[in-house]
Design brief:
Blueprint lengths: L11 H20 L5 H26 L4 H23 L4 H45 L6 H14 L1
Helix pairs in contact: 1-2, 1-4, 2-3, 3-4
The protein binds fe (ii) ion.
Length: 159
Amino acid sequence: MEWSENYMIGVKEIDDQHQEIFRRIQWLVDSADNVDLEEMLGFIERYISHHFDDEEKIMIMMDYVGLKDHQMIHHAFKRDMAERINELNNTEDNLLKTTRKVELAGHLAGWLLEHIMTEDFKLAAAVEQFARLALVDVKPKYLPKERSDARRERRSEVE
Ligand SMILES: [Fe+2]
């Protein structure tokens, strides 16, 4: 799972976290068969949850229309993960446990990539628009006249 600038959504904090999540998932995929279960669970339950909270804070701050849907997706993911983790914890057979760890790492990788490229990209579009509108609100009188008019027109198209 290699990080690429194509996955950036335009908020540094979130992009840095995504990049770190990619790095850790790649490590999990590479070493899932002998990775420490506690470490794997800690990453999913703490790092990823914390990342979702940060993403949601940005959505709340922007008054993002897709907030509820995006929150539900995060929530469903966490519930699904809790079930898988519970299953893993209750697996006594070592071979089966290893298979499930490898499966979980692969599932995480697929889910995250898909999530970034659909839901997080919708957020990226909203972030871009938010930044553009914020610029118009804050600085129109400092822009040369034609430019500020053009921006105001663009803004009324958006509204
Ligand atoms: Fe998200």
